[in-house]
């Protein structure tokens, strides 16, 4: 029988639709990640389905559900939805052994399949800090170790002192006996310092299974150290007749109590005016005899330390006199001026003495052996060069 062109065209069109429908029957699945102990939902969808059955099977190729019929006796596996276009099931209380590749099958000719990998995250156990023995002496080396097991993949460990992260730490990862999870440990190594006393050291475990809520272990450090001592005075300018309080501030662990006060290497000389109350030394009615070096000493079971304070008691009258003109300074300046003036006069006199003036008398101008004065004058006027001068000096 020979088909007309129009009938032939309709036949080809029908075949094309059948082929296109067959090619569109592919199951679609998605990989699933779930935390150990949680619930995994496995969904298989088909956009075009001509009443063909769907099936879910586990990694061991055991059928879990065939359409809406349960095939495996496992109370944890339940049907969520079954239709010609979708087969969804759930697996509750998931364990690490449930991890693997699950298969959705569409029973066409041939059978078409799609894979979905179920990843199970192992939750790390709450971390523990070991290696701390209380108390620790200042200067000793400390090694704190933080450990957590059961994580999959391996967890990350970070250290903090109060809120400041410490970077220089050691990290170790070991596979557990089940060959699925890991035990992770980290060691913090440092030398104890008094500034570490009371500091909170925390070990923080981060893992994708914790939903951004890390697990944290904490340890409060207790460091024992020798006392540090400082003396604080109640007055910066102590004066006679006043009172002063010297406070000995001492810090140490254990706390030093009480403190010991001494003066110039011996006991306090006047207990009636010098009263010790706890860490305070109070001196009443100050006078010049109170000048000296006061020493405060603090001791605890770890050691001893001390510091000193030099007390100088000032005269209030001398302090008041300093507010007017400085007469001593003025007198000194006048004395210097007088001294310089006298020295100048003396030097001027000596200079004039070295440059003396001379003149010749009439007697000196004449010869000494002249018989009379007239002859002497005549001789002097004629021979002044050879005459012996008679000199008179002035100052």
Describe this structure in words.
- The protein is an alpha+beta fold and 395 residues long.
- It is built from five helices and 26 strands.
- The chain has a six-stranded mixed β-sheet, with no helix packed on it. Strands 12-20-21-24-23 form a five-stranded mixed β-sheet, with no helix packed on it.
- β25 and β26 form a beta hairpin.
- It is elongated and about 150 Å long.
- The N terminus and C terminus are likely disordered.
Summarize the structure.
This protein has 395 residues and is of the alpha+beta class. It contains five helices and 26 strands.
Strand order of the largest sheet: 2-10-9-4-5-6
Q: What is the alpha-carbon Rg in Å?
A: 57 Å
Compute the average pLDDT: 84
Instruction: Give the biggest beta sheet.
Output: 6 strands, mixed
- Residue ranges: pLDDT <50 for 5 or more in a row? 1-22, 358-367, 382-395
Distance between the termini: 175 Å
Helix fraction bin = 10-25%
- Oligomeric state of this protein: single chain
Beta strand count: 26
Percent strand: 35-45%
User: Count the helices. How many?
Assistant: 5
* Outline type: elongated
Class inferred from helices and paired strands: alpha+beta
Topology (elements, then pairings):
Layout (H helix, E strand, L loop, with lengths): L4 H20 L2 E2 L3 E4 L4 E7 L7 E4 L5 E4 L2 E2 L6 E6 L3 E6 L8 E7 L5 E10 L6 E3 L5 E2 L3 E11 L4 E6 L2 E3 L3 E6 L6 E10 L8 E7 L8 E6 L2 E11 L10 E10 L5 E5 L10 E4 L2 E4 L8 E9 L2 E9 L4 H6 L5 H28 L7 H4 L7 H10 L13
Parallel strand pairs: 2-10, 12-20
Antiparallel strand pairs: 1-3, 3-8, 4-5, 4-9, 5-6, 7-8, 9-10, 11-13, 13-17, 14-15, 14-18, 16-17, 18-19, 20-21, 21-24, 22-25, 23-24, 25-26
């Amino acid at each position: 029988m020979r088909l007309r062109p129009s009938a032939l065209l309709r036949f080809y069109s029908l075949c094309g639709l059948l082929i296109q429908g067959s090619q569109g029957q592919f199951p679609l699945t998605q990989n699933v990640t779930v935390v150990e102990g949680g619930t995994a939902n496995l969904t298989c969808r088909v956009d075009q389905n001509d009443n063909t059955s769907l099936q879910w099977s586990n990694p061991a190729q055991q059928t879990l559900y065939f359409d809406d019929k349960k095939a495996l006796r496992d109370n944890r596996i339940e049907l969520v939805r079954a239709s010609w276009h979708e087969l969804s099931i759930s697996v509750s209380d998931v364990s690490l052994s449930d991890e693997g590749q699950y298969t959705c099958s569409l029973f066409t000719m041939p059978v078409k399949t799609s894979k979905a990998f179920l990843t199970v995250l192992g939750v790390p156990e709450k971390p523990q800090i070991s290696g701390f023995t209380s108390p620790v002496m200042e200067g000793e080396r400390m090694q704190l170790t933080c450990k957590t097991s059961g994580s999959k993949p391996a967890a990350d460990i970070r250290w903090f002192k109060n809120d400041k992260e410490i970077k220089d730490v050691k990290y170790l990862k070991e596979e557990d006996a089940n060959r699925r999870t890991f035990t992770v440990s980290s060691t913090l190594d440092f030398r104890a310092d008094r500034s570490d006393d009371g500091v909170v050291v925390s070990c923080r475990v981060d893992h994708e299974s914790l939903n951004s809520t890390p697990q944290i272990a904490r340890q409060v450090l207790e460091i024992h150290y020798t006392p540090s001592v400082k003396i604080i005075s109640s007055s910066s300018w102590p004066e006679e007749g006043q009172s002063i309080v010297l406070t000995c501030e001492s810090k140490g662990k254990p706390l030093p109590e009480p403190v010991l006060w001494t003066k110039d290497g011996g006991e306090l000389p006047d207990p009636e005016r010098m009263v010790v109350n706890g860490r305070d030394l109070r001196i009443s009615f100050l006078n010049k005899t109170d000048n000296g070096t006061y020493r405060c000493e603090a001791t605890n079971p770890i050691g001893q330390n001390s510091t000193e304070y030099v007390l100088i008691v000032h005269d209030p009258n001398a302090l008041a006199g300093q507010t007017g003109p400085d007469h001593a300074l003025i007198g000194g300046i006048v004395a210097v001026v007088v001294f310089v003036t006298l020295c100048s006069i003396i030097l001027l006199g000596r200079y004039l003495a070295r440059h003396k003036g001379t003149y010749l008398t009439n007697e000196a101008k004449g010869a000494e052996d002249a018989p009379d004065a007239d002859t002497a004058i005549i001789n002097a006027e004629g021979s002044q060069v050879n005459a012996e001068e008679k000199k008179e000096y002035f100052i």
